[in-house]
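REQUEST FORM: STRUCTURE PREDICTION
Request ID: SP-0412
Submitted by: Lab K.M.
Chain count: 1
Length (residues): 232
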Amino acid sequence: MTNSEKRKAVVLLSGGLDSTTVLAMALAEGFEVTALSFRYGQNHVHEAEQASRIALNYEVTDHLVVKIDLGIFGASALTDDIEVPKHDNHESIPEGIPVTYVPARNTIFLSYALAMAEVRKADCIMLGVNALDYSGYPDCRPEYISSFEQMANLATKRAIEGRRIEIVAPLLNLTKAQIIKKGLALGVDYSLTTSCYDPDKDNRACGNCDACLLRRRGFEANGLEDPSMYQI
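STATUS: Completed
RESULT:
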């Protein structure tokens, strides 16, 4: 199959474990990939740098880093001067929507991806949201993904002209352990990825935020040590 015949996909690449796994899946399935990352005013700015390294590692030449400022809205520990919650273990992570939720983040990211899909003539947008081992974010649920896809196919010229856009979330119903197992089978180097919400200046993970605890548990379930650098 030539490059001109390949299906095209826009992949949201945060630099984290989940999105890197999705990137590996897209490439393994033969997609021609446009990777889209964001500097959105996040306090953990290292993730955008990691995304660039990951795109380079996978030889994705069409990688764009979009600069926007979700910090103007505040109200999130990821963009505002709010302490990131820490816990002793994953069992102590409370239920409900945590303060690390960034208002409308996935809707904004997917809107950019939708515009890029039109321009790149891509038939699908792929992202690494997960509804099992996640932090309770409302924009990581199956009904959200389904609703955005419905909206996307009402709102775009490409869809109206008969080329529907699919929103693909292949990790949606997998545990973190299952995601890691799938990624390892595809040869993903998870040492390149970052998950921590509160890393230090050297990008060492805190070890106790929701993201760190869920990540560590996923590796432990696979009988492996997390290759991330940790402060503790």
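NOTES: Strands lie at 8-12, 32-39, 63-67, 124-126, 166-168.
Reviewed by: T.R.
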